[in-house]
Amino acid sequence: MSHTALQPIASLLIRRVFKWVILCVVCVSSLQAWLNYRAIEENFDMTVNDVARAHLPLLSVAIWDIEPQTIQKQIALILKNPSIAYVAIKASTGQHFTGGDINHLVSGQHMVFDIPAPADASTSVGKAEFVVDKAVLRKELLRSFIIVFIEVVILSVFIFMAVVAILRRDLEKPMRQLADFVKNLQANQLSTKLELQRKPGNGYNEIDLVVDGFCTMQDSLQKHIAHQDALVAERTSQLEAAMKSLKQLSITDGLTACYNRLLFNERMPAEIQRAVRYQRHLSLIFCDIDFFKKVNDEYGHAIGDHVLLAFAKSLAKELRVDVDWIVRYGGEEFLMVLPETNLQAALEVAERIRRQVEQHLFVRMPDGTVLRITASFGVAELKVTDTMESLVQRADERLYVAKSQGRNQVQPAFEAVPDVISKPVLEPVLQAITQPV
User: Fold this and answer.
1) Active-site residue, selected from the candidate residues 332, 333, 348, 381
2) 9-138 architecture in CATH?
3) Is 332 annotated in the active site?
């Protein structure tokens, strides 16, 4: 029997919840502080500009009428705003008027405004320089951050306490009763039923499922104590192996080992939902081997199968493990599903495959000639309004454009392509190229 110290699940979950609460407090506080900083800074600058707009016309009149006392009064009124620490007025006649704390000239922010003439706003009668005291802004930011931090901490504490209480009541206590029952259970007490003391109204949940399963296990042990474990293990292993084999056969193309269309129809909607929900890129590459029917007709299906298998291997070389996947969509048509991939990146993947096929994929014929293989590609990226059918259709339409414009190419060719592509009325008839080694 193990003597490892007991670590209750509820305590483990509480510690993890506490870490997440701390992380949320830091993140939310930082975000809110940044937002408040932007808002307060904009409001701060707006206030200074409002003061300037309010007093510049009066200063204009005072300078125009040469009234020094009025100018000084306006300076005194401007300095009543705590954000402005120093004001300097320089008239176009050469007169200077100042007011405020000269110590802020170095540390403060300087803002200069033209004083327009009373009669002609395009003419300046002087300049007004405001020295803004950033200490006022910093105090406001600090006060705002403290308030936000306290609010987030209080809310997080209440949430944490509620989570702790719920975990201890609905998880730790029932699990403790279950553990004590199992610990004290003897071989001659297998018929004793497990009953948890729980408050009514909790409903049927996983804990009740565990209790029911334990009771079922007790009944099975009473009936088949001699050989049940071995029998269940054997039958379970056989069933899992059979299910795994059947599942693999049902979703895999027997020739190329790529996924088949059945798997594509089952898996693709979830791939699209995931991309839309998390606002991630998702691209589709529709591939088609050029003149494949001609290969089958002239050289036989054995050569055609060899071409399909070699082409599938070329596609697989560009796969990201556990991310991208390939589907044999039908005949010589393949689909490559590229999650987390935008259109530009998908076009680059398709172009790499096209060059690889063109340069390295060939079949040596019995007469010594080499059958060169090329392929065409249509690429489409998922849009928010797309369904599986519309995405596949757009990729298919672009594949059709690639085939109709000469094959052995990728469409769109690194430029904007309309969502709906009109198919040409007639498709040129092209011949497959063979050449001797």
Assistant:
1) 332
2) 2-Layer Sandwich (3.30)
3) yes
